[in-house]
UniProtKB/TrEMBL annotation:
<dbReference type="InterPro" id="IPR029061">
    <property type="entry name" value="THDP-binding"/>
</dbReference>
<comment type="similarity">
    <text>Belongs to the transketolase family.</text>
</comment>
<dbReference type="InterPro" id="IPR005475">
    <property type="entry name" value="Transketolase-like_Pyr-bd"/>
</dbReference>
<feature type="domain" description="Transketolase-like pyrimidine-binding">
    <location>
        <begin position="1"/>
        <end position="163"/>
    </location>
</feature>
<dbReference type="InterPro" id="IPR033248">
    <property type="entry name" value="Transketolase_C"/>
</dbReference>
<dbReference type="Pfam" id="PF02780">
    <property type="entry name" value="Transketolase_C"/>
</dbReference>
<dbReference type="InterPro" id="IPR051157">
    <property type="entry name" value="PDH/Transketolase"/>
</dbReference>
<protein>
    <recommendedName>
        <fullName>Transketolase-like pyrimidine-binding domain-containing protein</fullName>
    </recommendedName>
</protein>
<dbReference type="Pfam" id="PF02779">
    <property type="entry name" value="Transket_pyr"/>
</dbReference>
<dbReference type="InterPro" id="IPR009014">
    <property type="entry name" value="Transketo_C/PFOR_II"/>
</dbReference>
<keyword id="KW-0786">Thiamine pyrophosphate</keyword>
Length: 308
């Protein structure tokens, strides 16, 4: 996803000299072309993420559209007070780019995991939160983030995420996008785990269980109208996210469902339990532990449907 992001940002920067890219000493093998083409639009501030947000805010309030890039855990946790006070309070057009979302940097241990960042960012006033599912959505989200000219948290995977779409979809901020239609249940997913959610639905379809899959690429503002409609049309709703089950996509969806006065659907949140991992390993290894592989998601959803 990060390569899709920088490819799109390079196109945008060529057309708009007000676009600035800041990095906190990251993006090597990714940003070289951008830095060479636009030396006056690229700054490496060093390992100083809070300072990066301060610089970004100043540039943004001076008329620039600023992308501030770091590993998602550092871009969100280390900088939170500065994002709140310098960016969101002033509605500054700063796009905080969190690369390596969820378990992407699992090999580096708990300090590098971004598994509570959605909870933090969606709690901030004036903040738009985008979590694209694949490189296609990542390019779209980059364009939209620049167009909004307001605070954005852009949550990216790392690299190697498969492309989900056969053709360019019609995407819109705040509107979920149907990836697969189905009648028995619906999966709402966001970010780089959407592919696994789709594969789990395809696995279940082979067993006679028809499941729809929707990418909620905009976690904030979330598609309330769609969720209310789904609650009326489906008896079973599942959320899937590579994020803590506390405060993320599942929480956002449940907040809406809880306020529906009519009979509510059965609801399942699939994500990372509220704990730090006890084991070290790759992203795929931790996905198996947390039940986020297509196979384990299929089993859990099947059990959920049978139990209900």
């Amino acid at each position: 996803m990060r390569y899709a992001f920088i490819q799109e940002l390079t196109k945008l920067a060529a057309k708009n000299k007000n676009i600035i890219l800041l990095t906190a000493d990251l993006g090597f093998t990714v940003f070289e072309e951008f830095a060479k083409k636009f030396p006056k639009q690229f700054f490496n501030v060093g390992i100083a993420e809070p300072n990066m947000i301060g610089i970004a805010s100043g540039l943004a309030l001076s008329g620039k559209i600023v992308f501030a890039y770091s590993i998602a855990s550092f871009a969100s946790f280390r900088t939170y007070e500065h994002i709140r006070n310098d960016v969101c309070l002033h509605k500054a057009p700063v796009i905080i780019v969190g690369s390596g979302a969820g378990l992407s940097y699992a090999d580096n241990g708990p300090t590098h995991l971004a598994t509570q960042d959605l909870a933090l960012m969606r709690g901030l006033p004036n903040m738009t939160v985008l979590a694209p599912a694949d490189p296609v959505e990542a390019q779209w989200a980059t364009r939209e983030a620049a167009r909004l000219k307001s605070p954005v948290y852009l949550r990216l995977g790392k690299k190697g995420e498969p492309v989900i779409y056969d053709k360019t979809p019609k995407l819109k901020i705040g509107q979920g996008n149907w990836i697969k239609r189905g009648s028995n249940f619906v999966i709402l997913a966001c970010g780089n785990i959407v592919f696994n959610a789709l594969k789990s639905a395809e696995n279940l379809e082979k067993k006679g269980l028809s499941g729809a899959v929707i990418s909620l690429h905009t976690v904030k503002p979330i598609d309330k109208k769609l969720i209310v409609q789904l609650a009326k049309n489906y008896s079973h709703i599942v959320t899937v996210e590579e994020h803590s089950v506390v405060g993320g996509l599942g929480s956002a969806v449940s907040e809406i469902i809880a306020q529906i006065p009519a009979k509510k659907p059965e609801f399942l949140i699939s994500g990372i339990k509220d704990d730090f991992p006890k084991k070290l390993g790759s992203q795929e290894y931790l996905r198996k532990i947390y039940g986020l592989t297509p196979e384990k998601l299929s089993l859990r959803i099947a059990k959920f449907l049978k139990k209900s």
